[in-house]
Amino acid sequence: MSRTTKISNQLNKYKGLLGILPALLFMLIFFLGGTLHSLSLSFESQETFSLDSQEGKFWAYKELFNVTFLQSIGVTIGIAAAVSVLSGVTGLIASLFLVERSRHWKWLNIIFQAPVGIPHLLSAYLFMQVLMQSGWYSRFAYQIGWIDSIEAFPVLVHDEWGVGVILAYMWKEVPFIILLISPFILKLLSDWREQSIALGGSFSQTVRWVIVPILLPMWVGGMWVVFAFTLGAYEIPALLASTSFGSIPVEAFQEYSQFGLERQPIAIAMNMVLAVISFLVGSILIFLQLRWYKQGRRVW
What we know:
mainly alpha, 13 helices, 0% strand
């Protein structure tokens, strides 16, 4: 009897871990297994894939690290960072607006959450039809006389700075941030707003001193998810970025599908570099979060 009670107590103690066990097993078997397999393929000698070459192990990484690839890394990280920060800030502001207004305008939540169900490939196609110089917006601006010709519309598709890519990603990722943090903002406001008003605090002061410090780890975590996804996503840069843009996911797909079996380790090595960058950024954020907790959650 005592042994049964002891086992029951142990199960109750670790029931939280048992709840995530199926997802953990899935990650270990498929995600971690696939990552290790890809890593081993990227380390293979070139003669494994081509009989005409005698290059040794790590040849894919040696071929990658040149000025062109380093520039591509900078472009890819820059776009991912811009998308994550802009989506995070816009999502936070939009969530506060929704929490305040959605009680009166229920349809606002539907409008803000509609892009979540649209695939990235379809959203890229829609943005291409809307933002290109012969698209809907340029023709509308021409019809009402805002521009003298369709060619006068700003270049937002296949442009030099990737503005169309950033806008297309934000259209998808801002609703994700809203969906992630808006329920918690609603709960925090309902718990703390009356106390804040009683102490003479305004809404902006409540957000600054209460909502943001409590919400910060989840908010930053959501931005990291956006960063990691954008870093390795292929569809939107393939459709909206110029051919000379240098997006690593697009270059990896081209290496994998267009240049023969012997180039596939290079494509895998590109993706492994992106995975390492994403892991390092996540590790830095975790370190800063732990340090932030030790300092008493001081934000300002």
